[in-house]
């Protein structure tokens, strides 16, 4: 589930954090779902448990995870600001693609309206 690049300049705990957030965004991890234990994940990734603990603690401080004593670490979900930030990133990428394809902003808005209407009709 987790892929760690030991050759990356990005610290391992940041890679873990980023992947957890992406799993939540993608719906792979759901609110109130229990995460793999620190020890188990560290063993799977062949890394120090303190590295996993740091990732979990930072995500907890950001309000994305929560801990229940003697039960484990659970997904709280993404705060609204993180969800909006994720959408903004996707929109920027979509706009870049539209520029390459010479699709105007107005055309893109019309496509979004059409798809939104189709989504409601389903």
List keywords for this structure.
122 residues; mainly alpha; 2 domains; two-stranded antiparallel sheet; 60% helix; 7% strand; DNA binding; transcription
Summarize the structure.
The chain is 60% helix and 7% strand. With 122 residues, it is mostly helical.
Structure overview:
Keywords: DNA-binding, Transcription, Transcription regulation. The chain is mainly α and 122 residues long. It folds into 2 domains: 12-75, Winged helix-like DNA-binding domain superfamily/Winged helix DNA-binding domain (Arc Repressor Mutant, subunit A), CATH 1.10.10.10; 80-121. The chain contains 5 helices and 2 strands. Helix 1 crosses helix 3 and helix 2 packs across helix 3 (49-61). The longest helix has 21 residues, at 80-100. The two termini are 32 Å apart.
CATH topology of the largest domain: Arc Repressor Mutant, subunit A
Radius of gyration: 18 Å
Main β-sheet, spatial strand arrangement = 1-2
Count of structural domains: 2
Oligomeric state of the chains in view: single chain
Mean pLDDT score:
89
Strand content: 5-15%
Question: End-to-end span in angstroms?
Answer: 32 Å
Number of strands: 2
State the helicity in percent bands: 55-70%
Low-confidence stretches: none
**Shape estimate:** elongated
Series of secondary-structure elements, N-terminal to C-terminal: HHHEEHH
Largest pleated sheet: 2 strands, antiparallel
């Amino acid at each position: 589930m987790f892929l760690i690049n030991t050759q990356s300049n990005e610290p391992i705990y940041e890679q873990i954090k980023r992947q957890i957030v992406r799993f939540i965004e993608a719906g792979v991890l759901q609110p109130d779902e229990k995460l793999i234990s620190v020890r188990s994940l560290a063993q799977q990734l062949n890394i120090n448990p303190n590295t996993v603990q740091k990732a979990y603690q930072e995500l907890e401080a950001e309000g994305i995870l929560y801990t229940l004593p003697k039960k484990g670490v659970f997904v709280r979900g993404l705060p609204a600001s993180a969800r909006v930030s994720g959408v903004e990133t996707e929109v920027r990428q979509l706009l870049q693609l539209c520029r390459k394809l010479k699709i105007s902003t107005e055309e893109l808005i019309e496509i979004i309206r059409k798809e939104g209407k189709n989504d409601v009709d389903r």
